[in-house]
Amino acid sequence: MTAEEQFNKVNEGDVITGRPFTVTRETIQAFADASLDYNPLHFDDNYMKNKFGKTSFEGVIMHGMQNFALITRTLTDWLIPRGGFHRRLETRWLKPVQLGHTITPVVTLQSKKRTEKGYWLLFDVEVNNQDGMLVAMGNAMAEFIDVIPGKR
To answer: What residues does 89 pair with on adjacent strands?
Structure first.
């Protein structure tokens, strides 16, 4: 199927719900090992009893960049089978994600744009915790083209 055909099959307003992710000490450790980020914010319960300016976290928190990874997985799980690929992601962290929290990325196709070189998708991104509280938000961009760079 061509990029144009794939582009025509998706609709503004389409909602993509990612896989729920529960934060554990093991998931924090695995992300730290992959990213080499061993900040005590993610490991040291005693350190996290301190107040940081006006903020008290009440315990260790997940790496903020792990939100990026979960959002990216949500996008690529949806895009790759359709012949698309993820081009950009920008988010803001609004609330810390703590041990035992379960977060779920939700991506909404906001708009579609055709250009001379490709077919672009613009998404709104939200990540909510188990209580429905918004912990991160932003936007993403993806593209459908007939030849994906680096793919033979």
So the answer is: 140
DSSP β-bridge partners for residue 119: 114, 144
pLDDT digits (tens, 9 = 90+) for 39-98: 999 999 888 887 776 777 888 999 989 989 999 999 999 999 998 989 999 999 999 999
Rounded CA separation 76/79 (Å): 5
pTM of the full structure: 0.88
Tokens 């613009």 found at: 122
Strand-pairing partners, residue 112, are 121
102-114 and 119-128 as β-strands: parallel, antiparallel, unpaired? antiparallel
CB 101 within 8 A of CB 130: yes
From CA 26, how far away is CA 138, in angstroms rounded? 27
